[in-house]
């Protein structure tokens, strides 16, 4: 009998593609190569697919949860979609808590996978949603996987994303750039890449003052993700909302890469880094697809 794949088997091993037009002639002259890791090719459409299946599988292995249980998570979008997909595959009830101002496509996608949504006031942001999830767990209403403190989040990037990038660049990577939300991706990938070559520069993209970029957060100290290890990030690049949104449109129109706004922010940061280095292999994470941002008005109607 042939061995067929399940939807879980399609998570990871995403393409790494070279930008052709955005870097321009100058970067070619400098010997720089800018590469995007297309995490939107995962089955639920983002890099969060990796962490979602990792957190559920490992909680099962420890006996913390079992099919039929209710899982609760505060999310700004991509993790919620990924968890909704993973919960559907593995047989869990999924309750997602998210601020009411997030894009309608994200909410619709979560519901399509069978998740239940609880919307919280815009003014409270993700901080209020996280507090509410913890309170519901204390009240016995379900189990919080907690992407912000769960070591199985960065662990999967150490085990899969980092090795994939190292292999795909044949060890030539010099700079790695990721948007910072839960910080799971940048923490796990940094750990792996630094073990291979301590000289690889790890750069986090964060929003500039006053900017709201879905998927990129600058957390208040009391809400800083527990999985975040500042020593694993060499540099922070601050991205404005306007620059991220403009880059999302340019990625689509000039490179044929239909990506989300946080992915575009990471791309903008990669291009900034490229202006001050030579003979570099720069990899940034294209963390999701642009189709879940159509209602935001970022892309032309």
UniProtKB/TrEMBL annotation:
Gene Ontology biological process: cysteine biosynthetic process from serine
PANTHER family: CYSTATHIONINE BETA-SYNTHASE
Class in the EC hierarchy, top level: transferase
Pathway the protein takes part in: Amino-acid biosynthesis; L-cysteine biosynthesis; L-cysteine from L-serine: step 2/2
Keyword Amino-acid biosynthesis on entry: yes
Family annotation (InterPro entries): Cys_synth, Cys_Synth/Cystath_Beta-Synth, CysM, P-phosphate_BS, TrpB-like_PALP, TrpB-like_PALP_sf
Name listed for the protein in its UniProt record: Cysteine synthase
Source organism of the structure: Caldimonas brevitalea
Modified sites of kind N6-(pyridoxal phosphate)lysine: 48
Cofactor: pyridoxal 5'-phosphate
Domain of life: Bacteria
Binding site for pyridoxal 5'-phosphate: 78, 181-185, 262
Family: Belongs to the cysteine synthase/cystathionine beta-synthase family.
CDD domains: CBS_like (cd01561)
Reactions listed under catalytic activity: O-acetyl-L-serine + hydrogen sulfide = L-cysteine + acetate
Alphabetical keyword list: Amino-acid biosynthesis, Cysteine biosynthesis, Pyridoxal phosphate, Transferase
SUPFAM superfamilies: Tryptophan synthase beta subunit-like PLP-dependent enzymes
Pfam families: PALP
A single MF term (Gene Ontology): cysteine synthase activity
EC number: 2.5.1.47
Stretches assigned to the Tryptophan synthase beta chain-like PALP domain: 7-288
């Amino acid at each position: 009998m042939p061995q067929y794949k399940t939807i879980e088997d399609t998570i990871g091993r995403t393409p790494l593609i070279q930008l052709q037009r955005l870097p321009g002639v100058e970067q070619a002259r400098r010997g720089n190569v800018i590469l995007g890791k297309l995490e939107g090719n995962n089955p639920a459409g983002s890099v969060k697919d990796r962490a979602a299946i990792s957190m559920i599988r490992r909680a099962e292995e420890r006996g913390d949860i079992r099919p039929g249980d209710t899982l609760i998570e505060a999310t700004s979008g991509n993790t919620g979609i990924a968890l909704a997909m993973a919960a559907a595959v593995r047989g869990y009830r999924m309750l997602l808590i998210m601020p009411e101002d997030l894009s309608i496509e994200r909410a619709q996608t979560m519901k399509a996978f069978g998740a239940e949504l609880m919307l919280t006031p815009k003014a409270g942001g993700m901080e209020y949603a996280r507090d509410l999830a913890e309170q519901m767990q204390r009240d016995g209403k379900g189990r919080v996987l907690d992407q912000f403190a769960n070591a199985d989040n960065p662990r999967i990037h150490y085990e899969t994303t980092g090795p994939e990038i190292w292999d795909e660049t044949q060890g030539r990577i010099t700079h790695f750039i990721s948007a910072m939300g839960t910080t799971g991706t940048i923490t796990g990938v940094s750990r792996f890449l630094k073990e291979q070559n301590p000289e690889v520069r790890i750069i986090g993209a964060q929003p500039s003052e006053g900017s709201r970029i879905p998927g990129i957060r600058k957390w208040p100290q009391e809400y800083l993700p527990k999985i975040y290890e500042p020593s694993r990030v060499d540099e922070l690049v601050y991205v404005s909302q306007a620059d991220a949104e403009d880059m999302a449109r340019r990625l689509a129109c000039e490179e044929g890469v239909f990506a989300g706004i946080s992915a575009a922010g990471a791309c903008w940061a990669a291009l900034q880094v490229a202006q001050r280095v030579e003979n570099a292999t720069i990899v940034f994470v294209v963390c999701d697809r642009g189709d879940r941002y159509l209602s935001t008005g970022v892309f032309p109607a």
